[in-house]
Amino acid sequence: MENKAVFFDRDGTLNVDIHYLHRPEDFIWIPGAKEAIRHVNDRGYLAILVTNQSGVARGYYPESDVQHVYDWMNSELQKVGAHLDALYYCPHHPEGTVPAYTKACSCRKPATGLIDAACARFHIDRAKSYFVGDSDGDMLCAKNAGLKGLRYEGGSLLDLVQKI
């Protein structure tokens, strides 16, 4: 059986983009973001976070910070009866300063490596799935991955996601 999913970008879509967010205390939810995730949960979609995290490659924070923020997000979401099913992130950047992460890769959006990995793991039907993001790169990733793209441009994220 194939699953359906909503892939969410993080910075600028679920939280206010402050550039290189890596601490829960700096996280500010976008209006309606928690409710949007609950909406997709309640309708039988997997809610999957896909995010570029070039701050790892640039040496601004370790990968463990990305996981820590994700875990914190899920603890906050649980308070409203919501959850994210998985985290996929790209720690690479061609202009990084940490050699292990300084490279071009197939997982950095708009490339589709993060989506491809999630679809393989969760048996996701791309024709029934969506990508919610705030940038041209997110929309290009959605197109390249065979997903319907929904562009967040402000206001309540729930209002946008209810169009699904």
Protein model, in words:
With 164 residues, the chain is α/β, with parallel strands linked by helices. It has a domain at 21-43 and 54-129 and 147-161: Rossmann fold. It contains six helices and five strands. Strands 3-2-1-4-5 form a five-stranded parallel beta sheet, sandwiched between helices. Helix 5 (136-145) links the parallel strand 4 and strand 5 (148-151). The radius of gyration is 15 Å and the shape is globular. Pathway: Nucleotide-sugar biosynthesis; GDP-D-glycero-alpha-D-manno-heptose biosynthesis; GDP-D-glycero-alpha-D-manno-heptose from D-glycero-alpha-D-manno-heptose 7-phosphate: step 2/3. The active site is at residues 9, 11.
Topology readout:
Blueprint: E1 5-8, H1 33-42, E2 46-52, H2 54-57, H3 63-78, E3 86-90, H4 113-122, E4 130-133, H5 136-145, E5 148-151, H6 157-161
Parallel strand pairs: 1-2, 1-4, 2-3, 4-5
Structure characteristics:
alpha/beta, Histidinol-phos, 34% helix, 6 helices, 15% strand, 164 residues, globular, Rossmann fold
Short description:
Belongs to the gmhB family. This protein is of the alpha/beta class.
Order of SSEs: EHEHHEHEHEH
What is the CATH C level class of the domain at 21-43 and 54-129 and 147-161, in words? Alpha Beta
* Strands, total number: 5
- Helix/strand/pairing category: alpha/beta
- Mind describing the biggest β-sheet? 5 strands, parallel
Helices, by number, come to 6
Task: Assign an overall shape.
Answer: globular
CATH fold-level name of the domain at 21-43 and 54-129 and 147-161: Rossmann fold
The CATH architecture category of the domain at 21-43 and 54-129 and 147-161 equals 3-Layer(aba) Sandwich
Give the rounded overall mean pLDDT: 97
Bin the helical content. Answer: 25-40%
Pathway: Nucleotide-sugar biosynthesis; GDP-D-glycero-alpha-D-manno-heptose biosynthesis; GDP-D-glycero-alpha-D-manno-heptose from D-glycero-alpha-D-manno-heptose 7-phosphate: step 2/3
Pfam families: Hydrolase_like
Site (Contributes to substrate recognition): 108
Family: Belongs to the gmhB family.
